[in-house]
Each structure stands twice: as C-alpha cells, then as structure tokens.
Amino acid sequence: MFCLQELKNNIIICGHFGCGKTNVAVGLALDMARAGRRLGIVDLDIVNPYFRTADSVPELERAGVDCFIPQFANTNVDIPSLGGEISAVFARQTDDPFYTAIFDVGGDNGAIALRRYRPELEKRGYSMLFVASMYRPLTETAEDAVAGLREIEACSGLHATAFINNSNIGRETSADDIAASLTYTDKICELTSLPCLAVTLHNASYAKQLHSKYPEYNFTVISDSTKKLF
C-alpha cells in the first residue's frame, strides 16, 4: 500500500521513458479507490502511444476512477490534444476539496504541457513523484536518473517531492533483483534529498520477504497492468 496520507490532492507521476510510471499511476489510482478516495486520472503521457493510462480505462472505471483522456489517445492520429481535460479536473476540485487528481506525465513533452498549469498546481498544492528503474536504458545509474529528473523539473517548472523505485525486469524479476536496487534507491535519495515513498514490485510474497530483511523500506505491491508487446 502506498503512504496515501503523505500525498496532496494533485499527484504528478513523472519519469523517463520506460520507467513504468504509467503502471505506478494506475496502481496508485486503484489503491486510492479501494481506500474510498474520490479521484480521477489524467493521461499526459503524450509522447508514448504504446504504454499509457488510456489502455487501463475499463479497469479504472470499474474501480470508480474518473478517466480524463486526450481526445486522440490510442488512435493513429498523433496529436497531443489535451482539450479541457485538466481544467475539468480543477473544476471538480473546486466543487469537492477532497477530490484527488493523478497526472501520468510522459517525459519532457508531458512536463512542458503540464507547465501551463503550474500556477494552479502551486495554488492547490501537489505531490510530484519521480519514478525510476535501474533496469531501463538511460537510467541505469542514479546519476543518469537524477539528470533526467532535473530535465523534467526544468520543463515543468515544478519540483519532485518524493522518489519511487520501480526497478524490475518484468516477469523475470526476482526478490534478489529488487534487493539489488536498494543501493540505487539510496543514492537517488542522497543526490536529490527526496524521501523514498515506495519500492514497487508485483509479487506479494517477495514483498513480505524483503520487508523482513529491509524493514526501513516501504515495499509496495502493484498489479502489472500495462500491456505487453511480446
């Protein structure tokens, strides 16, 4: 379970291409819905047509999550059209101060799009969660991952508030693979002064095993909800 009490009503999930941020965003939304929170999820992953929140709309809607999806998501029309989706989210929050919005932000382009709403986000408050994986290209080292974060922060004008270690190698991930990423977690937290909100994994038995050995980390199980190319 994510530490939901630590999060603001606007939650931005950001990270480099392939880090698994969409899976984290969907998992967090489902966790919050199960906890009884009223919320919506906004698909701002406008640079990646293959893995995006739009793929999980049926599951999210069954859980009671409102989905704010760009008009051309999952079509062959490659236009980053946002329309009034984000404005609609803020309107919900005006009517309901407890309404939560999760933003799935894709790379620099998604961060640039988000910058337009910086004044509103700063006024209402936000949590910006940086997701990284040591098993993905261009973020294998903590230094490279942090460099990517700095680019996202510069493009959005917003600042990360916590880190999520989403290091995995898909179906082949073992408990040892997760344990090997904890040094990576510590280094990113050291370089950024960010707290580690969660170390995510898909196997509950691994979570129990790792928690008993490394109780200082929050091992959080999320479903592997993104589609596969093979």
Report on the structure:
With about 230 residues, the chain is an alpha/beta fold. It folds into two domains: about 20-105; about 125-230, no CATH class. Helix content is about 40%, strand content about 15%. It has nine helices and eight strands. It has an eight-stranded parallel beta sheet, sandwiched between helices. β5, α6 (about 140-155) and β6 (about 160-165) form a beta-alpha-beta unit. α6 (about 140-155) packs across α8. It is globular. The chain starts with 9 loop residues before the first strand and ends in a 9-residue tail after the last strand. About 40% of the residues are buried. The model is unreliable at about 70-75 (pLDDT under 50).
Task: Give Rg in angstroms.
Answer: 16 Å
* Strand content bin: 15-25%
Mean pLDDT: 88
Helix content: 25-40%
Label the overall shape.
Answer: globular
Identify the strand order in the major beta sheet. 3-2-4-1-5-6-7-8
Instruction: Tell me the number of strands.
Output: 8
Number of helices: 9
Q: Main beta sheet, described?
A: 8 strands, parallel
Low-confidence stretches: 72-77
- Distance between termini? 29 Å
Number of domains: 2
Would you list the SSEs in sequence order as H and E? EHEHEHEHHEHEHHEHE
Specify the structural class.
Answer: alpha/beta
